[in-house]
Specification:
Helices cover 87% and strands 0% of the residues. It has 100 residues and is mainly α. The longest helix is centred in the C-terminal third of the chain and has 29 residues.
């Protein structure tokens, strides 16, 4: 289910923006959102909210990749994920340097 949601979100971004930088930003935003929800789940002691997050929301994009792949395919996907974050860092640094 989480893989379907991730694929649909990525398809919407690709079809709506059609730029690679938009894809990179969207992936990072989705990953950060999932990680924030995981942090909320861990630190808040509200059983209903915790159960809702555990049942329907994955921890992060690497957790989704680990759930649906294994072996060398998982390794290749994780390296792609790492390269995506490196590209994101490059976009952020470039933006800060342009503003100076």
């Amino acid at each position: 289910m989480d893989l379907v949601i991730l694929i649909v979100l990525l398809m919407v971004v690709v079809l709506a923006f059609k730029k690679f930088s938009s894809f990179v930003y969207c992936m990072v935003i989705i990953d950060l959102f999932l990680r924030i929800l995981t942090l909320i789940r861990i630190n808040l002691a509200i059983p209903e909210l915790t159960h809702l997050i555990v049942k329907y929301i994955p921890e992060s994009i690497p957790a989704i990749l680990a759930k649906y792949s294994s072996g060398i395919f998982y390794t290749v996907l994780m390296w792609g994920y790492i390269i995506l974050y490196i590209i994101f860092e490059w976009y952020i640094i470039r933006t800060f340097l342009k503003k100076k």
